Amino acid sequence: MQNAYLKIEQSSPLQGVAELTGAKNAVLVTIASLLLTSGKSVLRNVPYSADVLQMIALLEQLGAQVIFSPENHLLEVDTTHVNKWHVSAEIMKKMRASILVMGPLLARFGYADIALPGGCVLGTRPIDYHLNSFRKMGVEVAQDGDFLHGRASQLCAQKIVLAYPSVGATENIMMASVLTKGVTRIVNAALEPEVLDLIEVLKKMGAHIEIAPPATIVIEGVQEVHPIEHTILSDRLEAGSLLIAAAATGGSISIPQAPADALEVFLLKLEEMGHHITVGEHEVGITLHATKNPHAVSFKTSPYPGFPTDLQAPMMVLQCLAEGTSIIEETVFENRLVHVRELEKMGAQIVVHNNTATITGVEALYGAQVIASDIRAACALAIAGMAAKGTTIMTGVQHWKRGYESLEKKLALLGAHIWLHDDEDEMDMTPLNERSISKQIRA
Ligand code: EPZ
Fold it and tell me: Which of 31, 51, 221, 351 could cross-link to 180 by cystine, CB 3.0-4.6 Å?
């Protein structure tokens, strides 16, 4: 992977129909939630991405049996023999979402030994909401060095008030509460579509969960939950990225599976820019016809249903080439404007002050050597490369592969001039325990 890069050339207007893969931020927590059950579950529409293979490796390290058929996006997970509750630093540092097994392990065993996830390029990313909530539920959390040891002879149902509607903390507390006797309330909970999909998953397993206004999730503990069959919801963030790519190249695309009702504020901003958006029946399906004279718009990211932070970087690219000035405020993560300096290499005019970027639209961007610092930055730089004159070489493709399943191939089918150069060519997904995955992937 060392020498891997994406090569992107100015692309003609993207045209056509695009399919979506399953949502990364839904499938990762759904796989973790299977630890609450004992038996074989089947998940469909599972994306073949690096993060998914990491979560599979984590479950196998805990004792699960896994069979993954990438070509069918089919994942079978048997958790009957899960008998460990230790998550190594090696896995944790590769993927922060590994923290999402802490709730299920505490619920299943009363134990969880987890390496501290540490920060990432997006910021310090503490897990205090997770740990304080577990402590309130009766978990003793001890830290020695970079390791956390959670112990609970019995979890207690509690009212948990979150200072901020954290996605991960909401999901972890919910999973820890499903088997906890009594009623747990999560007040100021996150209600992202991926969180709502997890609620569907847990209810399918037999959990009792209701949502009460304002933003309170109520979980009544049950004795046990059972394995399930579930289809992962389509990736609204992939849909948003494809629409932005079409807008950036002056194209027209349709995405029949796109969940328009999960992208309201984002679509509003595209329309304010002048792009023509039509939505399908029951808010499913989005078609975009790009305007030739896009106006700059301003927005600030916020928890759902506000403007998604995961579309901030790609949406910034559109503002770089729009008429006028745009102000983008990133309020969810304290350090999620790293992509700005790479866009400046391509000729963008951006002034950053704390977590606010002021973008003055320019006539054109120019190809350059750029480095992706995280999943969504990779997407933004690829889109900038499709709109820019000349050739762009993007390194840091491990982030691209973590977040998307061969998105470069999907974009190329719509007319983009984009190629992934990777001496492994096949996904270098060798998870930690090589023993399992390679043997389990049916040829
Ligand atoms: C989830 O991360 C997503 N990841 C992120 O997607 C997404 O950007 C984020 O939610 C917000 O929508 C997955 O679902 C795997 P948070 P998560 O807890 O759960 C602070 C992508 O590109 N915070 O809602 O980690 C935190 O530092 C990724 O797909 C605390 O201070 O997000 C951040 O500033 C990136 N203490 C804010 O809250 C805590 O205990 C939101 O974090 C927890 C969070």
Answer: 221
Cα 204–208–212 angle (5° rounding)? Answer: 115
CA atoms within 13 A on the CB side of 110: 6
How many angstroms separate the alpha carbon of residue 393 from the centre of ligand 1?
29
Tokens of 272: 């304010």
Nearest CA to ligand 1 atom 7: 310
Rounded CA-CA distance 86/144 in Å is 14
Evaluated on CA atoms 192, 197, 198, 199, the torsion sign reads positive
What is the secondary structure of 51-111 as a DSSP string?
HHHHHHHHHHHTT-EEEEEGGGTEEEEE-TT----EE-HHHHHH-GGGGGGHHHHHHHHSE
* b/e code 319-328 from CB counts within 10 Å (16+ = b): bbbbeeebbb
Low-confidence ranges of the chain (pLDDT < 70): 1-2, 118-119, 423-443
226, 206 Cβ separation under 8 angstroms: yes
Structure letter (DSSP) for residue 234: B
Q: Is 197 in the pocket of ligand 1 (CB under 6 A)?
A: no
Tokens in use for 353? 């002050």
- pLDDT tens digits for range 200-229: 999 999 999 999 999 999 999 999 999 999
Q: Which sign, positive or negative, has the C-alpha torsion 341, 346, 349, 355?
A: negative
Q: Among all chains, which residue has been given the structure tokens 């997770």?
A: 130
Asked, as a colleague might, if the bond just before 294 is cis with ω within 30 of 0, I would say no
State the pairing for strand pair 40-44/229-231.
Answer: parallel
Tell me if 73 sits within 8 A of 46, measured CB to CB: yes
| 100 pocket-lining for ligand 1 (C-beta < 6 Å) | no
Q: Are strands 147-151 and 159-161 parallel, antiparallel or unpaired?
A: unpaired
The pLDDT tens digits of the residues spanning 394-433 come to: 999 999 999 999 999 999 999 999 999 986 654 444 444 4
Could you tell me if 395 and 401 are in contact, meaning their C-beta atoms sit under 8 angstroms apart?
A: no
Q: What is the pLDDT of residue 267?
A: 98
Residues recorded for the chain = 443
From the CA of 127, give the closest atom in ligand 1. Answer: 40
Single pTM value for the model: 0.95
Distance linking the first and last C-alpha atoms of the chain:
22
379 counts as catalytic: no
